[in-house]
Amino acid sequence: MKPRVGVYLSEQMAARLAEAAKRPGATKSALVEAALDLFLGSDDDVGDAATVARRLGGLSHQIEQLDRNLRIANETAALHVRFHLAVTPILPGAAQGAACALGAERFEEFAAQVARRVDLKIPLIRETIDRVGATRADAFASDLAELESLGSRSTAYQPGLPASTAIDDASAPVAAVREDGSNGGFRGRTGSAFY
Questions:
Q1: The dihedral formed by the CA atoms of 75, 81, 87 and 90, expressed in degrees to the nearest 10
Q2: What gap in Å lies between CA 158 and CA 167, rounded to an integer?
Q3: In the prediction, which pLDDT does 170 show?
Q4: The Cα angle at residue 17 between residues 15 and 22, in degrees rounded to 5
Q5: What is the pLDDT, as a whole number, of residue 59?
Q6: What is the DSSP letter of 149?
Q7: Computed from CA positions of residues 117, 75, 88, 176, in that sequence, does the dihedral angle turn out positive or negative?
Q8: pLDDT recorded at residue 112
Q9: Tens of pLDDT, residues 68-123
Q10: Where do the H-state alpha helices sit in 22-162?
Q11: Nearest CA to 17 among 3, 33, 32, 36?
Q12: C-alpha–C-alpha distance, residues 13 and 17, integer Å
């Protein structure tokens, strides 16, 4: 048996309820119960809301990750283009036709490589970062071994002297182009991943 509840309604709301209850199959009790269920939310809605919130949170995280990856790809492309334009000499008019043909051939190979990597789901950037990380870890281990072999010849702290020059100049920056577009006298290191 359902409990009986007495409520007071405004005359306008009571008139609307009476009018809605005139529809076939509708009762005042059923209409009030449906309205309260909608207003208060059913037990199923609480579980559904939590599920939806969890899924929306997951989608939000995925969108943030996609945004980050897209920004990385954009910056990578922009840095490559700036470097390429900085180091590519101007060709004489007679050589431009052959250069365009070679460029088209190279672009075809580039597009094929991109298609293969996309199909295999092996991102080059992840592979490169892993390889560079391993190379740097190996270089760090060899630098550490070299420091340990120096023994008593270790250098004393000198204010204003960058740490990279305390031992030798082997740790000079290896970037090809600075953010402002100049090369700033940077040079590559022999045996490193960058030339």
A1: -160
A2: 12
A3: 42
A4: 100
A5: 94
A6: H
A7: negative
A8: 87
A9: 989 988 898 888 888 888 888 888 888 888 888 888 898 888 888 888 888 888 77
A10: 28-40, 43-87, 93-120, 124-150
A11: 32
A12: 6
Looking at residue 83, its amino acid is F
Number of Cβ within 10 Å of residue 127's Cβ equals 11
Degrees (nearest 5) of the Cα angle 85, 91, 95? 135
Q: What are phi and psi of 194, to 5 degrees?
A: -115, 145
pTM for this entry: 0.37
* Under-70 pLDDT residues of the chain: 42-47, 140, 143-195
Task: Give the residue carrying structure tokens 């709301």.
Answer: 13
- Distance (Å, whole) CA 50 – CA 157: 58
- What residue type is 97 in one-letter code? G
**Rounded CA gap, 162 and 43, in Å?**
65
Q: How far apart are CA 90 and CA 85, in angstroms?
A: 10
pLDDT at residue 58, as a whole number: 92
Tokens for 131, please give them. Answer: 């390889």
Cα separation, 31 vs 66, whole angstroms: 47
How many Å apart are CA 50 and CA 60, to the nearest integer?
15
Tell me if residue 161 falls in helix, strand or coil: coil
Residue listed under structure tokens 């700033």: 184
The full DSSP string for 108-119 is HHHHHHHHHHHH
Structure tokens at 119: 């199909």
